[in-house]
Amino acid sequence: MTTLRTILLATLLFCCSIALAQEYYAISAKEVAAIDTFYRNYIIEDRYRWLEDLDSPETQQWTKEQSALAKKYLNKCSNNVFSSIDKYSYAEYNHLTKKGKYYFTYAYYHSLRVPALFYQSSLKAEPRLLVDPNYISRKDLINLTGYWVSKDSRLMAYQFSRNGSDWQEAKVITLKLGIHQKDHLTGLKFSDIAWQGNGFYYSTFSQADRFGQTLGQKVFYHQIGKDQQGDSLIFMRNNPAILFDYKTTADERFFVLKEINPQKGLINIFYADAQADQPQLRPLLTNLKDEIDILDSHQGKLIAITFHQANNGRIVAIDPKNPAKWQEIAPEFSESRLLEAIPFSDRIVAIYQVNQRPIITLFSYTGEILHSSTLPIGASIAGFSGDFTDEELFYYLQSYTVPPIVYKFNIGTFEKKLTERTAVTFSFEDIVYEEVEYLSKDGVPISMLLVYKKGLKLNGRNPTILMSYGGFGIVAQPAFEPGLVHFITQGGLFAFASIRGGGEKGVAWSGAGKGRYKQNSFDDFIAAAEFLIAKNYTTQQKLAITGVSNGGLVAAAAAIQRPDLFKAVVPVVAPLDMLRFEKFTVGHWHKEEYGSVEDSVSFTHLKAYSPYHNIEEATNYPAMLVITSENDDRVPPFHSYKFVARLQNRKAQSNPILLKIEKRSGHAGASTLLSSVQEKADLYGFVMHQLMKD
Predict the structure, then answer these.
(1) CATH no. for residue 186?
(2) What are phi and psi of 561, to 5 degrees?
(3) Coil, strand, or helix at residue 565?
(4) Within a domain: residue 416?
(5) What is the pTM assigned to this prediction?
(6) Are residues 349 and 462 in the same domain?
(7) Which 3 state secondary structure label does DSSP give 433?
(8) Residues 583, 213: contact at Cβ < 8 Å?
(9) Which of 7, 62, 346, 606 qualifies as a FRET site for 553, CA 20 to 30 Å off?
(10) Handedness of CA 224, 229, 232, 236 (dihedral sign)
(11) What values do phi and psi take at 284, rounded to 5?
């Protein structure tokens, strides 16, 4: 029987739909002829290239109009959603991290914009404010991006960014007194800080224009109290595309530098031994084709994770005196992907993943398995912070619907204890995590995680969000998402597909979804949508897709290739013009992942899937909310601008296409607590409005 409530709800949704339809209108963008010719045969028109000039009055006026349109439309979608997500965001937990003698945590206080850094000398001591980014600048939005404690716990160096940029600055503070030193370093980018003696190593890049290619990395040593101009240059190459990674071991005996040639796919490892008669950089390993990461040292040997002759990774010890002969500590396991390893004085903590389940395994340095425990499906674990000689460590576990739960773990007795109660404002016991498997276009089985409320009915009417990442060999790890809690509690189904290109099944899985095989990633994602529909979880009218960065490319490419499958699409900070991606900022480092227009075969593949270049004039694509950040200097925002302009400038497009531009933010998205909640409210409000229409 039709109830009055049902009639009122239907009437309300109908009225909201009419109101939103009246709020949306396409904003026309001028077309300016720009033509590129590739290999004599390919003529590529780029009528919206003028939007790459972000400082031009025309671009600024266009983006201003787009922002006003998006705000007006999204406000009507997200009003009630904001309060719900805001409520779920208030999860209380104490995520302590031990570095040296002190315990650290990020926390909000006084309702300020971004979290500050607190520290305490013991677990029972009261936390003290150490660094408050809210007062570093009155003009810029400051975010703390990392901190590193000296071996004697006397000093701490920390980095921060302005308005979301990848460019960083560093300062130094005395921990006992909480007083800043005069040291202030600028020009850092993708830089670690590695303490040694009375100073630390760091790296810079040559800073060209705003979106110029990031080139010319240099590694320096900074002595505390000295001016940056006098810092010692440690390493550089004439080839400006070369990249460096470096660290010092826990005892500060070894400085290890990894040299990466992204053009040739080769790695060289150098080291300096502070106990040598003449401590200087010497070659350890050269011309490696497989990834290797030096973690620390133990009894004079370097401990490393390597994928050399190991699809899923293994742990080895390398003697600098005989680097060609490796001692295997933990072998490769055929079904377990090695995610991380943390060496301690007499054992190694290793994190594996098997079929969406993390596993903690402890090894002795002779390779004996001392302990192993499997954790819940759909969870992720991180942390294991502590001094090299500590037995009691912290780690935290979280999932999409469970905020971080912090444990104290004794690696001698293997006893695990909760540190403090984690409080949430919702009931998470009724949320189900389920792993399913489906076949891709070429018959390859793909794993997918489903998250939903108990009692889900397979009636084809469940609002569904499908997401993936699928790039750079990265194993995507679940993190607490208040917006997703809102979506699921409203009856939504969330699906995450572990498509090729990611690292879930090792090096071979990653290689099967990059370069000339990148289309496999999109095929896997499309097959996930087809599976969800075929198995009656949902229908096209109830299916939305989203993704961030490379995951945004996957979502956008799938939407352009199969617009019939999806109702709503939300690409976030996504590369969308794949023919010009390599020309800006860090794009040239990713030629192995995506390919390059400099190679004719690679160009053909890029052209075939580049979302911007494959928009059809006569197709009405699904409703889209394209999200970017105005200061994204990793994937410049004009990727999204051009994509939106071309979609909107077609008579066939009747579904709404919106552009949301996060202000004072970079590739990581919204920078403050308030803007983060608003971004999620806009995303889920937009999706739920589209999926609830029918």
Answers:
(1) 2.130.10.120
(2) -80, -35
(3) helix
(4) yes
(5) 0.94
(6) no
(7) strand
(8) yes
(9) 62
(10) positive
(11) -105, -55
Report the distance separating Cα 261 and Cα 245, nearest Å: 12
131 and 190 part of one domain: yes
Residue 611 token pair: 């979302």
Q: How far apart are CA 385 and CA 380, in angstroms?
A: 15
Tell whether 287 is covered by a domain. Answer: no
d(CA 637, CA 631): 8
List, edge to edge, every strand of the sheet that includes 97-99: 97-99, 102-107, 116-120, 128-131
**456 is in which domain, residue-wise?**
10-88+426-691
- Beta-strand relationship, 347-354 and 357-364: antiparallel
What is the maximal distance between C-alpha atoms in the chain?
A: 89
CA distance 660 to 254: 47
Angle of CA points 368, 374, 376, to nearest 5°:
165
Q: Which long-range contacts (CB under 8 A, 24 or more apart) does 243-248 make?
A: 243/217, 243/589, 244/203, 244/217, 244/219, 245/192, 246/192, 246/194, 246/201, 246/203, 246/219, 247/192, 247/194, 247/294, 248/194, 248/195, 248/196, 248/201
Whole-angstrom distance, CA of residue 411 vs CA of residue 392? 6
Give the residue from 423, 451, 482 where a domain finishes: 423
**Type of residue numbered 484:** L
Number of residues assigned to the chain: 694
Cα dihedral 449, 453, 454, 457, rounded to 10, equals -80
CB 648 within 8 A of CB 616: no
Distance CA 132, CA 121 (A): 18
Residue 400 lies in a domain: yes
Residue type for position 655: N
Q: How far apart are CA 289 and CA 265, in angstroms?
A: 6
% pLDDT > 70, the chain = 96
Q: Could you report the per-residue pLDDT of 435-474, keeping only the tens digit for each? A: 999 999 999 999 999 999 999 999 999 999 999 999 999 9
Question: How many domains is the chain partitioned into structurally?
Answer: 3
- 221 φ, ψ to 5°? -115, 125
pLDDT of residue 5: 37
3-state secondary structure 235-255: ECCCCCCCEEEEEECCCCCEE
User: How does DSSP classify residue 422?
Assistant: -
Please check whether residue 496 lies inside any domain of the structure. yes
Burial of 694 (0-12, 13-18, 19+ CB in 10 A): exposed
The CA distance from 313 to 335, in Å, is: 11
> How many angstroms separate the Cα of 203 from the Cα of each of 410, 411, 589?
36, 34, 17
Q: 233-271 pLDDT, tens per residue?
A: 999 999 999 999 999 999 999 999 999 999 889 999 999
CATH number of domain containing 449: 3.40.50.1820
Residue 195 is encoded by which pair of tokens? 């303490």
Contacts of 487 (CB under 8 A, 6+ apart): 463, 465, 494, 684, 687, 688
- Judge whether 610 and 523 are in contact, CB under 8 Å: no
Residues 351, 439 within the same domain: no
Residue showing tokens 């800073």: 207
Q: How far apart are alpha carbons 144 and 103 in whole angstroms?
A: 17
Q: Are strands 464-467 and 543-548 parallel, antiparallel or unpaired?
A: parallel
Do the beta carbons of residue 185 and residue 222 sit within 8 Å?
A: yes
